[in-house]
Specification:
The protein is 31% helix and 22% strand. It is an alpha/beta fold. The protein folds into 2 domains: 85 residues, NAD(P)-binding Rossmann-like Domain (Rossmann fold, 3-Layer(aba) Sandwich); 51 residues, no CATH class.
């Protein structure tokens, strides 16, 4: 199996080299129709547009995007061509949690905000409920 991987995705070498016979690392903008023609799978980020222009006539059967969104993948063409794809919802959850914790600490320390007397709204509450439950704040779900 030949896999072409975006060379800016951290920690992927060890994982993909265990399952693929051949691995090619390219920059996100380096994925061309000629490069992917004989690939079985692509591991991409948002810099790579996976559309008919890139994929038509290729052997690609699977696309993994190391991103939450998938607007860079032409899902209609993939369905038509029998190409499976997968995004990574929640892949940045730890980073967002750390950022939010640091903001709450700054609000408390620099602005004197009493978190236990504060009501804060979170968009996308489902992903954060467990992580944020340690804070003495009344959380309000704005949009789930």
């Amino acid at each position: 199996m030949k896999v072409i991987v975006d060379n800016k995705i951290p920690y992927i070498r060890e994982a993909v080299e265990q399952i693929a016979d051949e691995v090619v690392y390219l920059s996100g903008s380096g994925f061309t129709a000629g490069n992917v023609r004989d690939a079985d799978a692509l591991v991409i980020r948002t810099r790579t547009r996976c559309n008919r222009e890139l994929l038509e006539g290729s052997k690609v059967k699977f696309i993994a995007t190391a991103t939450i969104g998938f607007d860079h993948i032409d899902v209609d063409y993939c369905r038509e061509a029998g190409i499976e794809w997968q995004n990574c919802p929640g892949c940045n959850a730890g980073s967002v949690e750390q950022y939010l914790h640091s903001v709450l600490l700054l609000l408390k320390r620099r602005k004197g905000m009493r978190l236990e007397d504060t009501c804060l709204g979170i968009v996308g509450w489902v992903m954060w409920e467990a992580a944020l439950s340690v804070w003495p704040v009344h959380w309000a779900c704005v949009c789930c």
